[in-house]
Amino acid sequence: MNARLILSVVAVVLALALPLILPLFQVTLLVNILIFATVVVGLVLLTGIVGLTSFGQAAFMGAGAYTTAVLTTQAGWSPWLALPAGLVVTGLIAWVLGLLTLRMQGHYLPLATIAWGMSLYYVFGNTPALGGFTGLTNIPPLSVFGLDLTSPRAFAYLALLALGLTGLGAQFLLSSRTGRAMRALRGGPLVAEAFGVNSFRLRVQVFVLAALMAGLAGWLYAHSQRFVNPTPFSLQAGIEYLFMAVVGGSGFVWGALLGSGLITGLREWLRDVLPGLIGAQGNFEVIVFGVLVILTLQFARRGLWPLLERVLPQAPVRLLPERGRLPAREKPAPGTPLLSVEHAVKQFGGLRAVNDVSFELRAGEILGLIGPNGAGKSTMFNLVTGVNPATSGRVSFMGRDITRLTAGQIHRLGLARTFQHVHLLPELSLLQNAMMGGYARGRAGMLASLLHLERREEAALQHEALRQLERVGLGELAHTLAGNLALGQQRVLEVARALVADPTLLLLDEPAAGLRYGEKMDLADLLRRLRAEGVTILLVEHDMDLVMGLVDRLVVMNYGEKLAEGSPAEIRAHPAVREAYLGVDVSGEEVA
Ligand SMILES: Nc1ncnc2c1ncn2[C@@H]1O[C@H](COP(=O)(O)OP(=O)(O)OP(=O)(O)O)[C@@H](O)[C@H]1O
Question: pLDDT tens across 157-188, in order?
């Protein structure tokens, strides 16, 4: 048994003992902490992991609470039947709101969550059937095997179970293929989609999941209080849940419990002491919360849980036993035409960034796409990878027209890429980063991940990622955090991540940018080795040192047009190319 596991067992035993040993008043507080933490676990997934800030989680909690309140008091339903009904209602509201708002970027989405958070609050308060602002009373207690959970001590066990299952499910999810995709979404959809993730669908799924967790908390809240009114589901409550997430550590599942415990406990204590200190009645605790959040953001930006993690023993890293490999792609024979660009044009307003460019790439070769700054290389890269579709012309891959396909669809056909500006998940290990590359080779969805039923596939992904890390020379560092790597190694890690996708074609976007001479030479060696192993590579590069000694053929672009095409020797001798490089001889010497 490792120390972390022992500690977890001790924590669980302590949690189970607390409802019995604490005074009754504190048990009631504990129940609230557990219920609020269940809402915050959803916020951790939504805001901390995926990066979607929501002020509206309290409103979803209200949807769950009011559904059970209405069904149990007015329709005579059993609370246990009202729970799935409440989850369906909450899930449907979230799904519709998600479809309407989750395409928004930047600050528009948080604004939208404020808008519907307020709307739902007023729906609760202004609907006579929901009791208006007075609310609904006489909600029946929950009963288990004929035993009424009227005492907070008994209820605490149910709240513990709900939070335990929610937290465990969230942890399982985060250690899965879907969880890695969620983390990749944080920086925007570019990386996730490049590896085949449908980013909008995943955002909607996480949004609904977080709402369901709030709906479950609402059901518990309604039956613990035995009455509901709109106040606990207001925008202010939604903001307090965000405070809890931020203070506890919005990127950490158990930070939800820490944040909920601190804010809820502090609120009770401050409500007792502040009026006495200040000599007046009022919600002074909210001012203290504001200061607390500002201090947290200033001194512990990732919240308090990571500070705790530093002193806690870490779980040992262990690989799952491999029970079968991921399906592999059949590769075309060397020399087969793989990628063909025909008369591609990309127009940005009045500017033709790519103007009637055609070239072909065959299996087994390294083709370099070079050109001075602003020549249109990145734009061409985006046309091929589906990030930006061509205005006219045609791009085909393995005989299929991919001109109008999305980045994810093109990736699934066998094209994997790296990024000009490294896009890794620094807080994850090299192994987990590399596993992201295999997203499209897996199938397990969100439900299987929540229930931990995808371990066989996860094991296959782990071992494939390890093989690719070893292939590029990073095997020894597999369990190091990616954020600790030097830039050269980070670029190599991106190559490994792309290789985990088992690509037919590897596209590298300026892989030598920012590297030292030695790192560039190592990278060139690696790419030569990969070519010898049959990997086809399209290299968009600026750096002549790297390109000339490495590629089989070159396409040179200038001002959006194709200037020349040929072997490195032919390109070196090409007068127009020499001129385009502004007096710098492409052999590396200064032109007299
Ligand atoms: N989204 C865009 N909107 C408008 N103009 C753009 C856009 N993207 C690129 N351009 C313009 O298209 C031209 C080609 O740019 P591109 O980034 O493709 O060149 P590049 O060869 O990759 O240059 P570099 O080596 O500096 O990255 C430039 O003039 C650039 O300003």
Answer: 999 999 999 999 999 999 999 999 999 999 88
DSSP 328: P
Residue nearest to atom 14 of ligand 1 (CA): 376
Residue 590 has a pLDDT of: 43
d(CA 552, CA 559): 24
Which residue of 346, 348, 546 sits with most ligand 1 atoms within 8 Å of its CB, as the best mutation to test the pocket? 348
Phi, psi for residue 46 in degrees, rounded to 5? -75, -50
pTM metric for this prediction: 0.93
| Location of structure tokens 């890390």 | 469
Would you say the ipTM is above 0.90? yes
Find out whether the beta carbon of 572 lies less than 6 Å from any atom of ligand 1.
no
Q: Ligand 1 centre and the CA of 376: distance in Å? A: 5
For each of the domains in the chain, give its residue range(s) and CATH number, in order of start.
25-234 (no CATH), 332-414+548-592 (3.40.50.300)
CA of 418 to the centre of ligand 1 (A): 18
Contacts of 214 (CB under 8 A, 6+ apart): 38, 39, 42, 57, 58, 60, 61, 63, 64, 90
Reported in sequence order, the residue ranges of 389-548 that DSSP labels E, i.e. its strands, are: 392-397, 400-401, 415-417, 505-509, 536-540
Cα of 374 vs centre of ligand 1, distance in Å, is 5
Measured in degrees and rounded to the nearest 5, phi and psi for residue 451 equal -95, 0
pLDDT one-digit tens code per residue, 356-402: 999 999 999 999 999 888 899 999 999 999 999 999 999 999 999 99
Range with the poorest average pLDDT among 61-75, 219-233, 285-299, 379-393: 285-299
- Closest ligand 1 atom, CA of 348? 4
- State the Cα–Cα distance between residues 242 and 259, nearest whole angstrom: 9
Q: Which amino acid is at 327?
A: P
For residue 370, the CA-to-ligand 1 centroid distance in Å is 13
Among all chains, which residue has been given the structure tokens 């600790």? 484
Residue pair 558/527 in contact by the 8 Å Cβ criterion: no
Residue 476, SS3? helix
